[in-house]
Write a structure and sequence with these properties.
The structure is a single chain. The chain is mainly beta and 344 residues long. It is built from 2 helices and 23 strands. It has helices at residues 2-11, 323-343; strands at 13-18, 23-26, 36-40, 43-44, 49-52, 55-58, 67-73, 78-88, 95-99, 106-112, 122-129, 132-133, 137-138, 145-149, 159-167, 170-178, 190-197, 200-209, 222-230, 237-241, 246-249, 258-266, 279-281. The longest helix has 21 residues, at 323-343.
Amino acid sequence: FYLLLLSVCCFARNQYERMSSDVTMQCGSLDNDASVSWKVNGTDVKAQHHLEGPRLMLTGVDLSHNGLYSCFQNPHGERRDTIFLHIGIPPREPTVTCRSNTYPKGFYCSWHQLHPTYIPTTFEVDVQHNQRSLEVQKDPDHKNRCRVRFPEVFSSFPYKVNVTAVNALGKASTTISFEESSIVKPDPPERVTATPIRFNARRLEVSWHSPATWPDIDNFPLKYFLRYRPLIREQWQHVELSDSTSHTITDAYAGKEYIIQVAAKDTEIGTWSDWSVAVHATPWIEDPLPITSTTEVDFPTETKTSPIPSSNAPQKAEPPVGRAARLLTFFSPLLLGMLLLFMW
């Protein structure tokens, strides 16, 4: 079915209609008194409609009415016409911006619609400078972008860019004018790195490269703007630099992680670039001393007696006495008495 539908689409004629409008589709060149039936995408038309001879009428169409409509002449059901219905809206004035990130080579302009049109829409671009049209090159990588070469540098004549959006339901245009110097805006610096400095607990060495898209850094130098803050705070610190591509932060909080970004700008004209990709770094932290592990050894200890033992202190034990000594001690008075009686 889908292959058949695709083959029919190749021979169908396109009909574009505005959203919310009432639509009439004519079945070929049939007379007003012809009797026909209609199908959409191969099935009966279910949307609100009515027939007037060879005409199908739809009321208040929306995107759900998009599809391939076919009409068949009664009573034999011979196909007489095929119409591809597209519902959309006319374009509105496009939003247009221009910028030079490759100064002094040229600039680009980009545009977009704030609201979708739902049908194919093309854009026509015209660039004027000093009463003549400039060559416009469509960007191969971006659909709604073109590039223009500067015809001269340091021109005092303004540039005028007109972009017209066109589709089957209408057209709309936007025109902007600008001075050469006002659109110069480099891309952000690249390859930003931040490195702790050994034995310096409050310093970070930051370096970066100028954007690769900036074509002539020697004759058109850039200046840079550095911002940094610890993650524990919301307030940024800023440093503006000339053409240097490195800077040493000297007031970092010891042991705190920092977030760092850099922007670039032509030294004389234009505006600052967007911020570079953020990098994170922490100042140098001294490695803690290793903890030495020791094995406990039992050494004989000397027992010390308190000068004034408390009443609860354990008493000093008597030395052990042998069994014979205890017997002698018990019988010695008795033996002495028997000896005295014998002498009498």
